[in-house]
Amino acid sequence: KNQDLAAIQEQKGKSGVEKHKEQLKTLFFNPGKKIKGIPFMGDKVNIFEPDAVQLYDFRIEHDEYKGKPALVFSAIPKVDADRDKIVIDSMTTWFDAETMNIMARTYTLSYKAGVYDFNVTMEVEMEQFGELTVPRVLRYNGEWDVVFKKKERAIFTATLFDFSKEN
């Protein structure tokens, strides 16, 4: 509950692009957590809550990620799950088998809410910066369609570097 309060406080007083950035950060770095302020779907991404757990198959496997031993956690909707309750079509997280630090995560999300629909794939490659796990590469491929607006499609890759410990 303290995390929920922290997320609300981070978005409080923000509007437009800044609020959307906070929502996107929550989705990227705290998957499975409810995202406040997204109409019709904010509570459908909290896949670890009791009502949502029954909609997904969860799996943990041993594998490699870029040549390093990894534990791979994945969540995919059950075949018979109600599509109206699903936003996360797949989520896979690679954990370093020795340190349990997150190495990478991929998501596929889609939803049709009547007033908007989207289909998005996101990939995040992580690295250690001191004690922090930070994003190194972000990949996004998706499309959004909002009523009365032109359909938007975007593909981008962002490489983040030159981290510093200042603020």
Please explain how this structure is put together.
The chain has 167 residues and is an alpha+beta fold. Helices cover 17% and strands 46% of the residues. It is built from three helices and seven strands, in the order H-H-H-E-E-E-E-E-E-E. It has a seven-stranded antiparallel β-sheet, with no helix packed on it. A hairpin with a 3-residue loop joins strand 4 (102-112) and strand 5. The longest helix has 14 residues, at 16-29.
Write the layout of secondary structure elements.
Layout: H1 2-11, H2 16-29, H3 50-53, E1 56-65, E2 68-77, E3 88-96, E4 102-112, E5 116-129, E6 132-146, E7 152-159
Antiparallel strand pairs: 1-2, 2-3, 3-4, 4-5, 5-6, 6-7
Describe this protein with a few key phrases.
single chain, 167 residues, alpha+beta, seven-stranded antiparallel sheet, 3 helices, 7 strands, globular, disordered N terminus
List the strand order in the largest sheet. Answer: 1-2-3-4-5-6-7
| Largest sheet entry | 7 strands, antiparallel
Helix content range of the residues, please? 10-25%
Treating each run of at least 4 consecutive H or I residues as one helix, how many helices?
A: 3
Q: Looking at the structure, what is the overall shape?
A: globular
Structural class by sheet pairing and helices? alpha+beta
Q: Distance between termini? A: 26 Å
Percentage of residues in strands: over 45%
Tell me, rounded to a whole number, the average pLDDT.
Answer: 81
Order of helices and strands: HHHEEEEEEE
- The radius of gyration over CA amounts to 17 Å
How many beta-strand elements?
7
Which regions have little confidence, pLDDT < 50, spanning 5+ residues? 1-11
